[in-house]
Amino acid sequence: MTISEKVAYIKGLMEGMKLDESKDEIKLTQKIVEVLEDMALTVSDLEDSLDLVGEQVDAVDEDLDALESYVYDDDECDDDCCCDDDVYEVKCPKCGNMIYVDGDILDEGSIDCPSCGEKLEFDVDFDEEEEDGAEDK
User: Fewer Cβ within 10 Å of end Cβ, the chain: N or C?
Assistant: First the structure.
């Protein structure tokens, strides 16, 4: 039984009792039942809104799962740093947290670990790596 149904039941009981509406306590009781009706409607509206928000959060969660799968699960490796289409996976030496950075962050030279605050410094020269690879061939 919903709150609205319970309030309607109480209102029906009160009306069925054929109370003397000229008495102050009956007037007060009627006003209390009116407030209960308003509260029941408000609660019902809030429940409907909450259901809608819950559905939207579920949709966002599904989209986020798909995005995380696309970004993080495509090319997992066990090395401390690996490359996947300009996204690099770096393991914090202090806390072991995996951090994903792009070339712009590498160009800046450092980033603070979001988990423990450890400053991670990068000294990467892609041109040098490419030249070394070309000389080996």
Answer: C
